[in-house]
Amino acid sequence: MTLLDALKGRVIEAKPELMSLEDAATKAEADLQDKEKLHAMLGSLTIPPGIARLGVELQAAEADREAAQIAADEAEKAVDTAHSARRALPERDPLITAREEHIRRARLIALAAPERLRLQEHRDAEAFATSFYEAAEKLVEEANSEWNAAKEEHMAQHLAGALAEGEPCPVCRQEVGILPVHPAAPDIAAKNAAVENASADRDRARTLLSQAQAARLTIDGTLVTLQEQINAADLSLAQHPDADDINRLLEAVDAADVYLESAGASEKQARAKLRAKVTAHQTLKDKERDLFRDFDSVRDGLVVLGPPPATRTDLSRDWTELTGWAVDKMPELAAQAADARGRAEQANRERALLVAELEASCRECNIDLPATEEVEHAVVVAHERALAHLGKIEEGIRVAADTREEIQAARIEGEVAGSLAHHLSATGFERWIVNEALGRLVEGASVILLELSGGAYSLALNDTGDFQVVDHHNANETRSAKTLSGGETFLASLSLALALAEHLSELAAEGAARLEAIFLDEGFGTLDSDTLETVAATVENLASKDRMVGIVTHVRDLADRVPVQYQVSKGVSSTVKRVNL
């Protein structure tokens, strides 16, 4: 074997060792670069400014939002309580009308009192005039009697002047024995004047009596009119409390209205405050979400070092744990970098010694080693190593993206679960059920009202749950149901009642009682004939569906359409009579 063959064999034998040493050096240097890069990242890792303050602000915002939610709920309960208290009281207008009727009755009674005193005075005057007239009448009778007696005496004396003793009496035809002696003849003119004077006095007494009677009758008529008005007021007030109770009720209504208005304003303020607190809290949550993305980006860059798991709920805590871990990890990483540096230097030294040995052997054999082959080989190895490292990075990015998607899905599931828990809470679920039932009720009532009103109106609900009416004859204008007239309000109320009768079994729990009877109390008198016909047909249709429908009404046209009637008659006591038509 020649020296060249030995060199060849030595080169062939050393090639795997050279490649191994080169690979070891390359890996150690790459490891060193990674460790130094990670060490630099750990060294520069600091908690971003404002993280701790953000956590405090978030806690405060969450507390403010919860407090605002509680305040809004309490304000809503206060409004419900105020509505209940107001509904428990009568309407204001009938009370005011009754109070005015009480005032009018009191005024009538006050007017009647002096009239009664005047009546007594005129009765006394009439009695006096009657006595005066009777006395004058008696004087007339006496004067007439005296006048008649005077006339008879005067006639007798005139006849007596023609008598003669022994001659027959011209009256009785008897013979006159002795002539009678007569007193002086009375003054007939004076007696006649007395009769005329007495008659004049009687006429004056009659005039005075007629005047007294007329005055007394006038006051009697006034008192009768006043008493009739008082009786009418008593009849209209029979179903109302007395004046003091009405005043107390009006004060209670005023207080309830003030409380309701105040409660409504408080609820509006509480809702506005809640919206502001929710917005402020959501703004901070959005900021926290962005900062969590930054945190995830930093942590993902350190995932190869096994950083501590993140809570995903406390950003300040996550940053504190990560930076604390980084401080603890830096000595370990520095030691690993020093180890990689030592391994690289050792591999390079051994390779340099081996290369120097081979180069010496080659020089001994007069062989020059071209540098291009070694450089080309190093490039190929570096390229392959770079491809491998790129594959690892792409895999890490894919895993991180998948992890973020899983985290986002979990976060969405958590938010859905939280929202569901809120809706399934006692108040939330009850409110949801009530709103759902009310919505279905309004849908049914709207169809009925559209038919009853001839296509003029339908019902809707606003955001606060108040009834709204849609005016289809006025460009579908939406306005409060309180703006309806009396007849229109009755149609809306009737529509709601009929819809409730239709949907109660659907809204009730399984096995609950079914509404089989409904009573409609008045309101029909406010309807015109066409609307009354539509309402009557609707009620008859409802009665045909195995339901009993009772109607309380004084409208004869409607009552005549009801096959079974109970007629109420009012007298000393009320009587009820069944009538089958």
Secondary structure topology:
Blueprint: H1 3-44, H2 51-87, H3 92-160, H4 188-236, H5 243-301, H6 315-364, H7 371-423, H8 426-452, E1 457-461, E2 467-471, E3 477-480, H9 486-507, E4 517-521, H10 529-543, E5 548-552, H11 556-559, E6 564-569, E7 575-580
Parallel strand pairs: 4-5
Antiparallel strand pairs: 1-2, 2-3, 6-7
Helix pairs in contact: 1-6, 2-5, 3-4, 3-5, 8-9
Please provide a brief summary of the model.
With 581 residues, this protein is mainly alpha-helical. Helices cover 73% and strands 6% of the residues.
Please provide a written account of the structure.
This protein is mostly helical. Among the domains are: 90-153 and 186-283; 428-580, Rossmann fold (3-Layer(aba) Sandwich). 73% of the residues lie in helices and 6% in strands. The strands form 3 sheets. Strands 1-2-3 form a 3-stranded antiparallel sheet. The protein has a two-stranded parallel sheet with strand order 4-5. Strands 6-7 form a two-stranded antiparallel sheet.
Secondary structural class: mainly alpha
What value does the Rg take, in angstroms?
Answer: 61 Å
Query: How much strand content do the residues show?
Result: 5-15%
- Within the largest sheet, what's the order of strands? 1-2-3
Helix content range: over 70%
What can be said about the biggest beta sheet?
3 strands, antiparallel
Q: How many β-strand runs?
A: 7
The run of helices and strands is HHHHHHHHEEEHEHEHEE
Gross morphology:
rod-shaped
Question: Any descriptors?
Answer:
581 residues; mainly alpha; Rossmann fold; three-stranded antiparallel beta sheet; 11 helices; 73% helix; 6% strand; rod-shaped
